[in-house]
Design brief:
This protein is of the alpha/beta class and 127 residues long. 26% of the residues lie in helices and 42% in strands.
Length: 127
Amino acid sequence: MKIVVTSLFVQDQDKALEFYSEKLGFVKKHDVPTGEFRWITLVSPDDQGGTELLLEPNAHPAAKEYQNKIFAEGIPATMFGVADIHQEYERLLEKGVKFTMEPTKMGDVTIAVFDDTCGNLIQIIQN
């Protein structure tokens, strides 16, 4: 068994698609109408057959409450691995991404956290 799709609640699918593709560099894999919303998934450009990130609308009250509460508590909604966190941090700063935590060494890893402008804090990590 393996993880094929992981979802991330977003406030606005179009805004999220733009942020995750244009700022972060993920590649759109699926964009399928599903009634009021869409099934939008993205993949890493260097692993396009890998795990898909689903940009899931937070339309359900429980989803919205969960998203708002973890954001308010400063808890990242998900984590992405990077090869060089300082290089990635600088690249994202140049694209206007707002960080809530600069690269910080934590034991054997270095992490940083940014706001995805869609209701989430996202952590990047370098092992």
